[in-house]
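input
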Amino acid sequence: MSELEKPKMMAYARHMLVCVGPRCTEDGQSQKLFESLGEKFKQAGLNKGDLRVKRTRTHCFATCKSGPVLCVQPDGIWYYNVTPANLDRIIQQHLVGGEPVEELIYHRQEPACAHG
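output
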């Protein structure tokens, strides 16, 4: 039996998870948003270096209202109503500028307290 090779991954600052499940949006809107991320990240300088953002499709967040929805980790920020224009705002203001787009947030997961 051959030995498994350990996967490799480049470092990243944030991880964007986009729900592409059928209950989140109609007509594949979420999938289209996800497919646009590669070029949008490249244009914003988020495809390499210190600001690099990893992107992943997910099937369901179980928050199936007012989609498309996405989550930015490790920030714990969950966005709804992610239209193409709102996605551009999230990329520029949050991922590049470091300031979440408050009016599009539907949930914020505060970091767990460290116990020492």
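quick obs: The domain at 14-108 is CATH 3.40.30.10 (Glutaredoxin).
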